[in-house]
Write the structure tokens for this entry.
Amino acid sequence: MGPQVVYLFCYCLCIAMCGTKLVEAIESPAYTVATSESDLEIRLYSESSWLSAPVRGTSFTQSTEDGFHRLYQYMHGGNLNSSKLAFTAPVLTSIPSSTSSHGNDYVVMFYVSTKYQGKPPQPNPELKLQVDKWRSHCIAVRKFSGFANDDNINKQVEALINSLSKYYGSSDTIQDKGSYSIAQYNSSRHLSGRLNEVWINVSGPNAQGCPLSH
Ligand SMILES: *[C@@H]1O[C@H](CO)[C@@H](O)[C@H](O)[C@H]1NC(C)=O
Ligand SMILES: *[C@@H]1O[C@H](CO)[C@@H](O)[C@H](O)[C@H]1NC(C)=O
Ligand SMILES: *[C@@H]1O[C@H](CO)[C@@H](O)[C@H](O)[C@H]1NC(C)=O
């Protein structure tokens, strides 16, 4: 990864996530907190639309940059309506639970702002983006600071899985063991006070409820 790529990524993230902030607060997907512990939070997220950039790659960091770049173009008019869309937080990257050095299917995502929920403009085909609809569901969340990268995310994921076992006896609450996600909230120009989260889909004893602590 060359310095120019890094520069572009920083620049884009900055425009995306600080520029807008001066004008209005950055939107995030809505949720309610079902359980809150020192080392984990269970949230119930509302139904929502997300713009997704699938990326085949070997690195979380590199794949996030690749996907972000395509989403950035979409947000800046790379859609059939030439509409400009407001950026939202976080930048979410879903990662397969078992990764291979030969290549993995990452997906980099942005929540679609309220104005376009359910009806975002069609992406230009060459950007290879898709619109994903999420039904309302529960997510176990672990927060961590610093820069999320290939060297530190696995430790955070393991810690969240351990917390889930601690509170729920086993990892049976985990809905889909095949993948988890990393949410990044801040522009790369912020060196401190950064917030990231590990997200794992979970389900409670009944289909509607999120798991509650014992
Ligand atoms: C995009 O443009 C089409 C055709 O003009 C219009 O019907 C549609 O509502 C627009 N979509 C958005 C999200 O602005
Ligand atoms: C989490 O669940 C939602 C709703 O079922 C689904 O759309 C999404 O793809 C899941 N995410 C992961 C990382 O499995
Ligand atoms: C990072 O993002 C979080 C969540 O939006 C925010 O609370 C925090 O203040 C941000 N940090 C910086 C340094 O801007």
User: Anything to note?
Assistant: The longest helix spans residues 3-23. Residues 30 and 46 are 6 Å apart (CA to CA). The beta strands are 31-36, 41-45, 48-57, 91-96, 104-111, 130-134, 137-144, 179-184, 196-202. Residues 3-202 form a domain with the Multidrug-efflux Transporter 1 Regulator Bmrr; Chain A fold (CATH 3.20.80.10).
